[in-house]
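hey
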């Protein structure tokens, strides 16, 4: 367990610093989001709606899909036409704003890294892989699994752009390859004690 804790801390540090490099130094995430040229009108329109904090979809589906009445069917058809015509969108909304570089965000991010790497370290220790390369690839595959499930799901269901999705998956490949090296070094299989 001590080696798992050491591996977790070292892996989380590697993950944290890779995140810093990927988002601030490299051009990897230049396409991960665009700034509106003039967000004033959009911000004002959102403020006028008095929305609660939450996730919103555009066009909103404020109808019951199981409503088989004539009015319900007409509302569904109207929503389908609005969805086809566009625009479509996905908004994570906070009415009161947030501190842009809040240290708590980075602290919580590091804790998330710790939890994620801990799961990977435990799974790797259970796998009992004898070769270094296999241990690295095992951890990399965990990262790819996350990318496939999360990022490809967002691409599929919420229409996230291909370049955004590709950048996020590349980010995970590099991140979990680096973490894999750390975990593979620290969590080498223990040699059985020889009997005297």
């Amino acid at each position: 367990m001590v080696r798992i804790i050491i591996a977790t801390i070292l892996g989380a540090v590697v993950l944290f610093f890779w995140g810093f490099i990927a988002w601030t130094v490299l051009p990897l995430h230049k396409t991960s989001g665009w700034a509106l040229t003039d967000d004033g009108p959009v911000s004002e329109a959102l403020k006028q709606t008095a929305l609660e904090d939450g996730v919103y979809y555009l066009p909103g589906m404020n109808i019951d899909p199981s409503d088989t009445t004539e009015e319900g069917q007409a509302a569904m058809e109207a929503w389908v036409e609005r969805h086809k015509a566009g625009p479509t969108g996905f908004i994570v909304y906070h009415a009161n704003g947030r501190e842009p570089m809040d240290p708590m965000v980075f602290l919580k991010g590091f804790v998330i890294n710790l939890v994620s790497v801990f799961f990977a370290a435990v799974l790797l220790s259970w796998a009992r892989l004898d070769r270094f390369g296999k241990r690295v690839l095992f951890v990399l595959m965990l990262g790819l699994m996350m990318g496939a499930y999360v990022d490809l799901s967002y691409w599929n269901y919420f229409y996230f752009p291909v370049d955004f999705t590709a950048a996020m998956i590349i980010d995970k490949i590099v991140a979990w390859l680096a973490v894999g090296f750390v975990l593979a070094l620290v969590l080498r299989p223990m040699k059985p004690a020889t009997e005297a």
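The chain has two domains: 2-32+101-186, 54-93. Strands lie at 54-58, 89-93.
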